[in-house]
């Protein structure tokens, strides 16, 4: 396989209808995933299974949601830190986010939607649920490939069964400046994998894991960004790095984005498989629970500082 340019993220095509494990097609996409993760630690995924009308409608739905009064938005609370409403933070004044746990299940979204619209909002719930349900398939293909790359097939069922989904929707106010302002500072996510999508306002930057260079994401039609989180980095005993990323914005248009965060279930202990621990690769992290890691994180310097994983459970 040829080498990739260092300054543009590879776009990997997941749109083939017959992309099934065990096919040549699958192996070819998997090889591209492996190369992209080695070189960049993240990649662009082309995926067309979410109906266009849902993808077009989602940003209108987000506008409607974020236009609600603050006292309504703050009703979005969660027992897990960072899964509920975030906003009005002095360090990231442009940013707001709202979380939907297990958004691929319609009843869950409907219940959470009633927090914002007590009489319900059927079209909003349907858009959020369809989006999450279709994108889950992309996440599962990617994680299946990653486990195959590291020959961890025997953990497939446990890995899939021990994860769940948070759909986080985000708004960044336009800063009304020509110089880019920080929307969200450089950070890694604490989850397993994140898949990001945005409206027409660019601003997401990703740091290449091999060169350290920051690359601006300029999406094309059907494109999503896939990043690796600290929990997957830890479970793979460091074989993949968590992706540093940030959002910088200028102008006056708001940026809306949607993140599908694949998270380990609360209470599940993340423990690197013995196959990935040897003399050349000593164990990096003691077993930990993702929800407890987040609690540690909020109790200390906060999420948008450098990784709290080493401090929490580094060996
Ligand atoms: O808005 C984006 O594209 C990125 C959001 C993000 O990095 C996060 O919420 O962790
Ligand atoms: Fe992030």
TrEMBL record:
<protein>
    <recommendedName>
        <fullName>Fe2OG dioxygenase domain-containing protein</fullName>
    </recommendedName>
</protein>
<dbReference type="InterPro" id="IPR044861">
    <property type="entry name" value="IPNS-like_FE2OG_OXY"/>
</dbReference>
<dbReference type="InterPro" id="IPR005123">
    <property type="entry name" value="Oxoglu/Fe-dep_dioxygenase_dom"/>
</dbReference>
<dbReference type="InterPro" id="IPR026992">
    <property type="entry name" value="DIOX_N"/>
</dbReference>
<dbReference type="InterPro" id="IPR027443">
    <property type="entry name" value="IPNS-like_sf"/>
</dbReference>
<dbReference type="Pfam" id="PF14226">
    <property type="entry name" value="DIOX_N"/>
</dbReference>
<keyword id="KW-0560">Oxidoreductase</keyword>
<dbReference type="Pfam" id="PF03171">
    <property type="entry name" value="2OG-FeII_Oxy"/>
</dbReference>
<keyword id="KW-0479">Metal-binding</keyword>
<comment type="similarity">
    <text>Belongs to the iron/ascorbate-dependent oxidoreductase family.</text>
</comment>
<dbReference type="InterPro" id="IPR050231">
    <property type="entry name" value="Iron_ascorbate_oxido_reductase"/>
</dbReference>
<feature type="domain" description="Fe2OG dioxygenase">
    <location>
        <begin position="162"/>
        <end position="264"/>
    </location>
</feature>
<keyword id="KW-0408">Iron</keyword>
